[in-house]
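Subject: sequence -> structure tokens, single chain

Hey, anyone have a minute? Need the predicted structure for the following. Not urgent.
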Amino acid sequence: IEDITYAEAYDNYCYIKTSDQKHLISQTLKSVEEKLLSHGFLRVHRGYLINVTKIQSVTESSVFIEDTAIPIGRTFREDLISLLNTF
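Reply:
Had a minute. Here:
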């Protein structure tokens, strides 16, 4: 689990991204989120779930994980800001 950098929705499937691999699994992002939420993951967009320990930088509209820009959805922005303020 600690190797996962982020998960990306792909229709009724989900890509699980690690530092060096990308896996397509036959589960929805919602189902993956339920399993990973208690392991330091946060939903930042309707199509993305990130490992908060892998965040490199944050801009107004994106989170960067290993030089990949992941968009921040308006409805998820407050949760991300609250989390970042606790560090």
